[in-house]
Predict the structure.
Amino acid sequence: MKILSQSFFALSVLLMMAAADSLAQTAKEPDAIIGIYQSPDENGKVEFYKERGQYFGKLIQVNTSQNKVKVGTIIFKDLTFTNGHWEGKIYAPAKGKEFPCNLSLKNNKDLEVKVRSGFLSQTREWKRLNN
C-alpha cells in the first residue's frame, strides 16, 4: 500500500510539473505571433500578420528551386487566438493540401507548430528572426 501511495504522489508531482510547463508557454497577447520566422528546414521565411481579426502567415522568401511554392503564398490561414495559442490551417505545398494546425510560442519567441492529419500529428519549431 505504501508503494502505491508513493507512486501516486510521484505521478501527481509529474503531472503538476507538466501542467506548469504548459502554462508557462502560453502567450498572453494575441499579436505576439506577428513577426518573421524561419521554417524548420530553413528553406523559407514566413511573415505573420493580422487581417480582419485573424492571423495569416505569408511566404516572403524561398531558398529552394522547387516550383511548388512561390513568394507571396499564404502558408498559414485563418488563425484565431484562444487560450494562449493560435488555431487554424497550414498549407503544405508538397502535398497541395491544407491541414489543421495549432501554434504556440515557445519561450515567448519561437513558434511550436503542431500539424494534424487524421490521428497523426507532427510538431516542428519555427525560429523567430525579429523581435
Remarks:
- Residues 3-25 have pLDDT under 50 and may be disordered.
- Residues 2-24 form the longest helix (23 residues).
- The domain at 2-128 is CATH 2.40.128.520 (Lipocalin).
